[in-house]
Amino acid sequence: MEKPSNATTIEITPAVEDYLKAVYRLEQAGLPAQTNRLCEELGGIKSASVSGMLKRLAEADLLEYTPYQGVTLTPTGRKISLSVLRKHRLLELFLVLEMGYTWEDVHEEAENLEHHASDKLVEKIAAKLGYPEFDPHGDPIPDAEGGLPARETLILADCPIGREMRVFRVLNQNPERLSFYSNNGLTPGSAVTVRSRQFGNDTLNLHVSSGDLTLDIHEAAKILMVRSN
Description:
Layout: H1 14-28, H2 35-41, H3 47-59, E1 63-66, E2 70-73, H4 75-99, H5 106-114, H6 119-128, E3 154-155, E4 164-170, H7 175-183, E5 191-198, E6 203-208, E7 211-216, H8 217-220, E8 223-227
Antiparallel strand pairs: 1-2, 3-8, 4-5, 4-8, 5-6, 6-7
């Protein structure tokens, strides 16, 4: 796509990449990428700073910006965000498979590395790992052209009662919650069966590898499942 003649140029710094990646995550979650949400997504950056950066990114044709309504990625902005996500998710998988990291510890390490890893290094990692499609949390890894693998999933909260399913993707990146999932048989590939739903207190009664488990239904909405083979 040809850049508009009135677009300004901007250096693609780690901060720029973080903003574009944050907008992408909100878009994927179906949430408007508004200033207040981006403040939270970016770890509590002040709204004035966020607004200023969004305007700069819009002027550089990386975002479409409408005051008080939020932003969306332009094709150029989306390409950059997917490139950063490819690096991040490949690095996560490499660190888990080759370096002995656990899935609850790897996110922050990959955050530190993603802005500094060269494209050449990332492609060597991809080749070594056999061009994987998903990272340790089940998140899709964009390919070198920005394409994303597709897999039909169902959130755990909506799984049919009595049918064995398998964890495919965990959307919560909080280390404490990931440790909880690891200790309770809720990691990708693990078998889970919903035994019953308790609508009065919004919980699910589950059978997992370690036994029976009660899980908040809102947390169960962050765990994506596929049918067992």
